[in-house]
Design goal:
4 helices, 176 residues, 9 strands, alpha+beta, five-stranded mixed β-sheet
């Protein structure tokens, strides 16, 4: 069964501790522009990464980082606002929504890739050949040298409507 990500509601409906000073629930945060909406956030889109289940832990992390780096460069809508801490130190913006990471067999990955192509979803691939290269130019050459049906995929990232991404990830399981 696929797990989903939902943020929790903070409008007083969530459970409270035994003693609370505010029977109305937690106060809503405010900014100079007024109250901040802290209700549940649901996205109509999804970012998903599918990793081959025979990868070493360091490979899983490396592949995931490489795959998601491609999404923000061509899909600016997936990137949120820059961050800042209480001392006004600036930080880079990140994805505005969670990245769901799945795992599956080589066959599951190949089927997901075929479905992503068929749905024309934005996608990034990582092949086994990329573990032997050391730079972007060689990475691109390694992918270019292999026909689509023969790619030895170890990772796939996709972005799109929730139901479309769910259909692409059919047969994969949440990464543990």
């Amino acid at each position: 069964m696929q797990e989903t990500y939902k943020t929790r509601s903070y409008d007083g409906r969530q459970s409270q501790g035994m003693s609370t000073d505010n029977p109305e629930g937690p106060a809503r945060p405010e900014t100079s522009e007024g109250p901040v909406d802290t209700g549940p956030v649901r996205f109509d889109s999804k970012i998903a990464v599918l990793l081959r289940d025979d990868l070493e832990p360091w490979q899983r992390l490396n592949v995931t980082a490489f795959l998601v780096s491609g999404l923000g460069t061509v899909l600016p809508e997936v990137i949120g606002e820059p961050y800042a801490d209480a001392d006004d130190t600036a930080y880079l913006p990140m994805f505005r929504q969670p990245v769901l990471v799945f795992e599956g067999s080589k066959e599951t990955l190949t089927a997901a890739h075929t479905r992503a192509l068929g749905r024309a979803l934005p996608r990034a691939v990582f092949t086994s050949d990329l573990f032997a290269t050391g730079n972007d130019r060689d990475n691109r050459a390694a992918v270019r040298a292999v026909p689509t049906a023969e790619l030895d995929l170890v990772g796939l990232a996709v972005y799109g409507p929730r139901n479309g991404v769910d259909k692409v990830m059919k047969g994969a399981r949440m990464h543990r």
